[in-house]
Amino acid sequence: MKTYNYNYPVALKEGWQTYQEQTYCINESHAIINLLNAGLQHIEIEPILFNPKETVSFTMKLPEPLLKRIDESKEKLGVKTRSKAIFLLIGKGLAKYQQDQNEGKE
Predict the structure, then answer these.
(1) Nearest Cα to 85, choosing from 28, 29, 47?
(2) Is the pLDDT of residue 56 over 90?
(3) Whole-prediction pTM
(4) Whole-angstrom Cα distance, residue 78 to residue 95?
(5) Phi then psi dihedrals of residue 60, to 5 deg
(6) What confidence category does residue 90 fall into, taking pLDDT thresholds of 50, 70 and 90?
(7) What phi and psi values does residue 70 have, to the nearest 5 degrees?
(8) Which of 6, 9, 24, 38 is the most exposed place for a label (fewest CB within 10 A)?
(9) Are the C-beta atoms of residues 34 and 23 closer than 8 Å to each other?
(10) Secondary structure (H, E, C), 42-89
(11) How many Cβ atoms sit within 10 Å of the Cβ of residue 35?
């Protein structure tokens, strides 16, 4: 596990905290890892985008194999940095979760 400190949009953090509560994740890192994996599995889905002007610092621990997959996805996502890839993948994971919730209501 590697520890990283990133600045994320406040609304994105609120999004993964809501996901954490709704899915009974043990902690924020667990929720983030789930969302990153969902984003990687559904890379074609449009991410939920958040205003990057209001940011909050957040420290997370991510496993090396996941970091490698994130780094490999940067080109496909059209970004150059790991933090932007993480930002988009969490947004994609949240979009997939919302899509699944909406389909469950129909």
Answers:
(1) 47
(2) no
(3) 0.86
(4) 18
(5) -140, 155
(6) very high
(7) -65, -45
(8) 24
(9) yes
(10) CCCCCCCCCCCCCEEEEEEEECHHHHHHHHHHHHHHCCCCHHHHHHHH
(11) 27
